[in-house]
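RECORD TYPE: inverse folding
INPUT: structure tokens
STRUCTURE:
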């Protein structure tokens, strides 16, 4: 299968890329960091068909990036979106440029690449799109609500896109991921709720074979977040492990 990974040098994306490669898929990678992408390309060996590096916030480079992609891979089976950035929450509450940056990288840069790619897949009449969002998008919490709001907006967009593309042959997956031990969470105290990149990668690669499109990763987050979403405000505020900073 022909697989495109947007944000391919993310820790979780690299673990997914290795798994796609192991089953013989062909990969094209979009990333920011050339050195990291070179290392990944070495790991992927002959399954790596090419890549293009740019800052995804630089929307003027998207056309060039996609032209490079279509040149190597005119037919695409799977597209994965894996880039993101968790900026300082408290800073984002005082410096609106940090809030803006959070939305630019986690929402707008995704949409600007997703829109042309989803149109391309629709024209093909087939394909699968998987986007990594977050359980942080399910309910605003003091700890990370700026990031959570960007991811939550992305989930809502994906829900609409999925319905819009229903019957077109294009499936849209929303991977609502729980905490994972990667550079993004390097400063976070690790506890039982953390997964490894390899574990979540396996769950997402396998989920693309199924017909359930909102996927909590790992699956137990579906139950946890159902409870968290339904908690009445007064109770939520009393549960300090949820409502504290
Ligand atoms: N780790 C978690 O606990 C967790 C939980 C839920 C959801 N997520 C989401 O999971 C996805 C994967 O994250 P991860 O945990 O694998 O983190 P990671 O290893 O820190 O990867 C984040 C990636 O985003 C890329 N990126 C950030 N800003 C970019 C920009 N402007 N242009 C291009 N690329 C940019 C980084 O590029 P460079 O390689 O160049 O630095 C990096 O590869 C993200 O969408 C994240 O929001 C993570």
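DESIGNED SEQUENCE:
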């Amino acid at each position: 299968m022909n697989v495109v990974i947007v944000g391919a040098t993310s820790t979780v994306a690299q673990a997914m890329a290795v798994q796609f490669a192991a089953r013989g898929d062909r990969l094209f990678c979009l990333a920011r960091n050339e050195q990291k992408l070179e290392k990944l390309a070495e790991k992927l060996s002959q399954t790596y068909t090419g890549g293009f590096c740019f800052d995804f916030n630089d929307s003027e480079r998207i056309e060039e990036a996609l032209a490079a992609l279509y040149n190597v891979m005119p037919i695409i089976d799977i597209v994965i979106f894996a880039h993101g950035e968790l900026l300082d929450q408290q800073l984002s509450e005082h410096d609106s440029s940090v809030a803006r940056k959070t939305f630019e990288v986690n929402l707008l840069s995704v949409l600007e690449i997703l829109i042309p790619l989803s149109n391309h897949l629709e024209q093909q009449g087939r394909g699968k799109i998987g986007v990594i969002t977050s359980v942080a998008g399910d309910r605003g919490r003091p700890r990370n609500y700026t990031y959570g709001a960007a991811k939550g907006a992305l989930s809502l967009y994906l829900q609409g896109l999925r319905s819009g593309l229903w019957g077109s042959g294009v499936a849209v997956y929303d991977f609502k991921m729980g905490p994972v031990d990667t550079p993004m969470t390097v400063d976070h105290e690790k506890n039982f709720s953390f997964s490894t990149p390899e574990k979540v990668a396996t769950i997402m690669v396998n989920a693309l074979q199924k017909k359930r499109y909102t996927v909590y990763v790992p699956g137990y987050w579906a139950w946890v977040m159902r409870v968290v979403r339904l908690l009445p405000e007064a109770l939520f505020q009393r549960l300090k492990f949820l409502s504290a900073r």
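NOTES: The mean pLDDT is 97.
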